Structure prediction request, 391 residues.
Amino acid sequence: MARGKGGGSTYYDTAKSKWVAELKWVDPATGKLLKAKRYADSRREAEKLLAELVDQKAKGLLAEPSRLIVRDFATEYLKRLEREGLRPNSLRLAKEELTRAIPSLKDPLVHDPLGRMRLQEVRPAHIREALDKVMEQGYSSRTVGKVLMRLKALFREALRLELVARNPAEAVSLRLPQGEKAARALEPHEVARLLEEAERSKSPDMALLLRLMLETGLRRGEALALQWRDIDFTRGEVKVWRSWTKVEGRGTFSAPKTRSARRTVPLPRGLLLRLEARRQELLERLTPEELAEVFLFGGNKPYDPDAFNHYLRRLAQRAGLGKVRVHDLRHTWATLALSRGIPLEVVSERLGHANPNITLGVYRHLLEEERRGYVIDLEDLLKGPGTRPQA
Prediction:
C-alpha cells in the first residue's frame, strides 16, 4: 500500500513470506535513489516500521545504505580506541571480547556470519545468535555479558557516525543461570577462615597482600603497584595512583581509568600496624631512601599478577571455600561495608568508582534488602531528630 510521495509503502513479499515496509528517497548530494527496507511478520507491524522510517528520515537519522561490514568496522573501531589512548590492557580486553563474537577479526577465513554482514543488516536476532555461539564454546555468563557490552559499544559508535539507524545490540539482554552470580561476597566467617589459612601459609607477603585487599577494597593491580613511599604512616593512609597489569605476557604500569580512581585510602589500624612491622624488618637491611623505592609486594619489581591468582586459589581450597576469585575480595569489602551502614558515597569513593551511580548499580540489591528492614512507627517519627528507627 503506497502512502504518496515520500510516504513509503508496505507490501507482502511472497518469496520471503514477510511483510515489507519500504521507503525511497533521492539523495540531494548525488541524485541517487536510496532505499530502506524493514521486514515484519504482519501488516500491522510493517505499518509501524514504515512510520518509524518516515520519522527517522524527517529527523535526518536514517543512515545511508553502506557496504561496510561488521568485521571491517570493528577493526577501525579498535584502531580508533588505540589512537585515543585507551590503556593497553583495556585495549586487549576490547579486542578479545569482540573477537569472541566476530572471530574473523583474528582469522579472516573462519566462518563468521555476523562479521560478514553489512552493518545495517544486523538485527537483534543476529546479535543473540552470535552470543549463543560464544556461550556454546563454554565461556561463563559473565564473559558473555562483557561481549554483549562491547557489541553495544561498537554499534553505539556506528549510530553516532550515522552508519546505522538504531543499535541492534541494545534490544538484547542476558540472564544469568539460576545460582550463578557475577561476583561472590564472602561471609564474615569465610573471611576469617581465609585469613587464618593465610597466616599459616609460607608466603607472608602474599598473606599481607590478601589482607590489604580485603581491608581496603583495592584492585589487585592497584595493590601490586604500591611502593613504600605511597604509604603515609603518620596519617594512616595510602596513595593509589597507578596499576600494575599484564599485557601480552608482560607486566606494565598504567594510569587510572578515571580521575576518581586516583585516590587516597585510609588504612585500618590493625593493617597499618602489620605494614609498620614489615617496614621495620626491611629497614634492618635498607636505608629509608632505598626502602621508599621498593614495592610492597615483590621488592624491586611487583609480583606477577597471576602469582596472586594461583595463591588465592590454593588458599581458598585449603580453607574449604571452593572457588574464590580475586575480584571477589573487592566485592566482599564493599558488601560488608554497605551492610554495616557505611554511606554509599563513602564506599564509592574508596572503591575509586567514577560516581556513586556505578556503585549503586552493582549493589542495589543489597541496599534494597537493607531498606526493607526498616519499619517505621508513627511514634518514632514524632520523637523528633536524633532518633534513628530500628531495623
Summary: The mean pLDDT is 85. Residues 148 and 169 are 7 Å apart (CA to CA). The chain has three domains: 9-58, 70-160, 188-339. Residues 141-160 form the longest helix (20 residues).
